[in-house]
Amino acid sequence: MSVGEEKSLKSIQKQRTARGWLGLYHSYYKRKGFYRFLYTKGAKSSVILIVILTLLWFAEKHIVHTEDIFANFIKNIEDWKVLVFYTLSEIGFGVIPPDFFIVWAEKFSRPFLMVTFLALISYFASFISYYMGSVLRRINFINRFVIDKFSRHFDKVRQWGGVLIIFTALFPLPFSIFNIIAGMLGFPFDMFWKFALARIPRFYIYALILFRIF
To answer: CB of 26 within 8 A of CB of 35?
Structure first.
């Protein structure tokens, strides 16, 4: 067998192996209901987002300039305080959606630079949330309370792992809660930080949409 034929054979074997693994993952996620979850949650999140954006667009065009509402709301708050509040929100339970802060970023002379900064804060905040979960699992009564309160989320992270982290990073879902749960379950950090990278492009995608509205 020539060198070229040997390389070709190895390439075919790798492709078959890759297809085999993909087939196994597909069967597993289908059996565990991930695609159904992806469809229902993704569709629901998309509908909610479209409705909110439509209402904001309508208000912007026919009622009041929505950017003035945001400006008036935070005009007396220093930028660093807004960033601190945003960081705490991203570490904790994501009380304030990051989309409001993306709109706030448009006031800067280089808004996409601030969007990048917000994206990086959210990404690195996920590390803190993860380690919070690692600490919380060692405190029995807190561990039991969180497991009881978010039992369905725990089951989903156990079943779907990294794919779920990517999904929550991209869609308007409680990203920080799933990061805490991943830490509590001992999800491997060397895999976690790679999956969490999906959080960064989310900010650019949403900024492109929101900046057109506001």
So the answer is: no
Rounded to whole angstroms, what are the CA distances from 162 to 9, 11, 29, 207, 210?
Answer: 32, 27, 12, 25, 28
Confidence at 117, pLDDT banded by 50, 70, 90 = very high
Q: Which of 167, 163, 151 minimizes the C-alpha distance to 202?
A: 167
Beta carbons of 29 and 160 less than 8 angstroms apart: yes
78/90 Cα distance (integer angstroms) = 19
Burial class of 182 by CB neighbour count within 10 A (0 to 12, 13 to 18, 19+): buried
User: Where do the domains of the chain lie?
Assistant: 64-213
More confident residue, 43 or 186: 186
What's the rounded mean pLDDT across residues 186-196? 92
pTM higher than 0.85, yes or no? Answer: no
Q: Is 40 exposed, middle or buried (0-12, 13-18, 19+ CB in 10 A)?
A: exposed
Identity of the residue numbered 27: S
Three-state DSSP state, 95: coil
